[in-house]
Each structure stands twice: as C-alpha cells, then as structure tokens.
Design goal:
The chain is mainly alpha-helical. It has six helices and six strands. Helix content is about 35%, strand content about 5%. Helix 1 runs antiparallel to helix 3. The termini are far apart.
C-alpha cells in the first residue's frame, strides 16, 4: 500500500467523521451534563445506552461507506431461469443499454457514477460524507444509519442544552451555564448572539441589567418620609 493512499479523500472523510464523533461524545461526558451526573450517581444504564448508540451509528457509517454498493460487473454473471411470475410482470423484450463511460450493459435502474467511475445497480446517489455510492446493497443500511444517527443527534442536543432554556431537564443547570440568567455568560450568548463562549463585556461604568442590584428611585417633588 502506497503511503499517499492514506491521504485519499475516503480515508480523510472517514477518519474525520470518527474523530469528530468520539470527540463530541467525550465532551458530553467530561462537561457538566446529565451524562456526567448519572455517572457520578452510579446510574450507568443511560450512559451505557448512549455509548452503544454512538458505537452502533459509527459501525453503520463504516459499513455503508466501505461496502460494495452494488457495482455492475464487467463480465456478465450467469443468471437463473426466470419464473413465470417474473416473465408475466416484466416484458422480456426490453433491451439493456450500454454505458457510454465504462461500456458495460446496465441493468434496469442502474446508473454510472462519475465519482466512483463505475455503474451501480439501483443507483440512489453518491454521498460525499461517506465517499461511497448508495445503491442496491447498502441502501437498507444507509436508511438504518440515518435513523440511528438522528436519535443520537437529538439525544446529544438534549444533553448539551441547559435546563433553564426549556429543552433540558429542569434544574440541570448547576453550576449555572451560559444560557442561565444567573450566569455571567448569559448576556453574551443570549439572543441575538449565537456564540456560547463569548464573555459578557458590558460598557465601562455600566452593569448588567440582570446582575445590578435594585435601587430605590425617588420621584422629584415627593418628600421622603423617615421610617
């Protein structure tokens, strides 16, 4: 194997996806989230389920991206005799077209992929995030991967969102995180700002409206009475 083969787009995409997946998972466990609280309290069932879901989604990703999507063989394989039901439903007079790129006979619903430079049976699309086609063989696994990845993303978003923002557990914002009004980070990450890592920097001589202590306001012309 040549050394420059390690820098191919497929290797870089799969390595980046793997590192990003485990990196975000590690941040969720190290940060003050419900996963860490469950782990400290000895409740290991939900953290273990989350890890298994992440591992399952990663294995499905690698399986879909590495397996044969259903490439059309250059040499035609001997086919079995068609059954009566098949001959009645599909006319046998439909000629197979020849691909103008790789010059192979394309079955029905097959299409040539210019990125892979091969014809794929029941071609759906070429996924750049997997660096592989989605076709006849890996299409069911691709749908399963999307469903499992959606569950992991929604659960991870639920864990990363503080409780006082309305989408996390109530009272889970301890110590106060950026979206809690009692935190010094709240004015920087609340609307209209989008970053949760900018410190609140009020103008000199002014104080935050949430942290300023209430003061008594005297109305002009009204005499103050002593208690």
């Amino acid at each position: 194997m040549a050394p420059w083969a390690l820098l191919s787009p497929g290797v870089l995409v799969r390595t980046g996806h793997t590192v990003l997946t485990w990196g975000i998972t590690l941040v969720l466990f190290l940060h003050d989230t419900a996963l860490r609280q469950w782990e400290e309290q000895g409740e290991l069932l939900l953290p273990l389920i989350f890890l298994l879901l992440v591992l399952g989604s990663l294995l499905l990703y690698l399986a879909v991206s590495l397996m044969d999507p259903g490439y059309v063989n250059v040499q035609p394989q001997p086919q079995e005799e068609a059954k009566e039901e098949q001959t009645a439903m599909v006319p046998q007079t439909i000629p197979l077209r020849r691909c103008r790129y790789c010059l192979v006979l394309q079955p029905l619903r097959a299409r040539h992929c210019r990125e892979c430079r091969r014809c794929v049976r029941r071609y759906d699309h070429h996924c750049p995030w997997m660096e592989n086609c989605v076709g006849e063989r890996n299409h069911p696994l691709f749908v399963a991967y999307l469903a499992l990845q959606l569950v992991v993303l929604l659960w991870g978003l639920y864990l990363a969102c503080p409780g006082d923002c309305g989408c996390g557990q109530v009272g889970s914002c301890s110590p106060p995180s950026c979206c809690c009004p009692s935190s010094r980070w709240w004015p920087a990450c609340s609307w209209p700002h989008t970053s949760t890592w900018w410190a609140a920097t009020p103008p000199p001589g002014s104080s935050s409206p949430l942290t300023a202590s209430p003061t008594s306001v005297s109305v002009p012309g009204t005499p103050s009475t002593a208690a």
